[in-house]
Amino acid sequence: MRENGRAFDRIRLLPRVAVDVAGRTARTRLLGLPVPVPLAVAPMAYQTWLHPDGEVAAASAAAVAGVPFVVSMMASRTVEEVAATGAATVMQLYWLRDRGLFRELVGRAEAAGCVALMLTVDVPLLGRRLRDLRGGLVRPANVVAANLGRAGGGLDAVGGAGTSEVAAHTGVLFDPSLSWADVAWIRSVTRLPLVLKGILDPDDAALAVAAGVDTVVVSNHGGRQLDGAVATAVALPAVVDAVDGRCEVLVDSGVRGGVDVLKALALGATGVLVGRPLLWGLAAGGAAGAARVLDLIGEELHEAMALAGCPDVDSARRLRTSVAGGDR
Ligand SMILES: Cc1cc2nc3c(=O)[nH]c(=O)nc-3n(C[C@H](O)[C@H](O)[C@H](O)COP(=O)(O)O)c2cc1C
Ligand SMILES: CCCCC(=O)C(=O)O
């Protein structure tokens, strides 16, 4: 988790000069849609834990900013409620043992008008989260996986220091047997664009392209899964090379401001997903707080583009970078 931020910090940009940036724009396409800035909100579970309106408030902020909102399969508000905010909504999915429930969720996402499905592939089981275990993490009774019906409620039998009810619950639901054959099946049951989230190895990126995926997200899940996994700013360039323009390449994990977005573009990304900063905004100020976070990142990106001599996103993708030696 710490290395994600450090890796972005170590990237150095080579600004261009005497380029007319007076009319600069960060407009581009992301997940097949026109967007004012190349970012979307990452899927994050259980947002009513942070604010009573949860995902509905966060998605409203995305709608105001004009950027896509990815609703977690483990969201505490339903995909229908999220889509009703007017945000371009992407449904995130985990591979479930209950294939009937998985198929039903695909159908609900389609019916709700989702613009894409995002299959997260880096959670065969939940990572070992020591603070969750030490604190005996248990969901409050009102924080449930609203999309999963009866399966979304709490596990009464689990509690106390040394246990995580969230890890136990996902262990019951998620199927660690996911393989590329299953990805091909998922590709075959929907016409929506398919995104795979959690790619780090360029060979997996090539397999994703071969499976007919429209977008890969270079992600280590914000450092929440495999401790010691490579930072995404380090992994990104090889994935961009392997994909070679055959699908979109998004990146997340450690993006904290507009300069990080510019660095991601310079490393070849189509755009970024923003994770925790959105939750901080949501916790601090609900929909307005989340909207302020998106505004700040957008403002910072526009400024950084001016200072780097980039009138548009394509020129940002052509910026040269280097990697600094040590930490600052
Ligand atoms: C509280 C929390 C819950 C998350 N829940 C999900 C989830 O339900 N599905 C998913 O694919 N990723 C989930 N993630 C991972 C994020 O989508 C994203 O990959 C990560 O947070 C990006 O890193 P960042 O927080 O450093 O921006 C979660 C992350 C956090 C912090
Ligand atoms: C609650 C299900 C898993 C959410 C998740 O992906 C995360 O906490 O990182």
TrEMBL record:
Q: Which PROSITE patterns match?
A: FMN_HYDROXY_ACID_DH_1 (PS00557), FMN_HYDROXY_ACID_DH_2 (PS51349)
Q: Name one GO molecular function term.
A: FMN binding
**Per UniProt, where does glyoxylate bind?**
Y94, R129, H221, R224
Pfam families from the xrefs? FMN_dh (PF01070)
- State the UniProt keywords alphabetically: Flavoprotein, FMN, Oxidoreductase
Active site, renumbered: H221 (proton acceptor)
Q: Which cofactor does it need?
A: FMN
Residues noted as binding FMN in the record, renumbered to the chain: 43-45, 72, 92, 120, 197, 219, 252-256, 275-276
InterPro entries this protein is in? Aldolase_TIM, Alpha-hydoxy_acid_DH_FMN, FMN-dep_DH, FMN_HAD, FMN_hydac_DH_AS
Query: Ranges for the FMN hydroxy acid dehydrogenase domain?
Result: 1-326
| Family listed | Belongs to the FMN-dependent alpha-hydroxy acid dehydrogenase family.
Q: What is this protein called?
A: Alpha-hydroxy-acid oxidizing enzyme
Print the organism lineage.
Bacteria, Bacillati, Actinomycetota, Actinomycetes, Micromonosporales
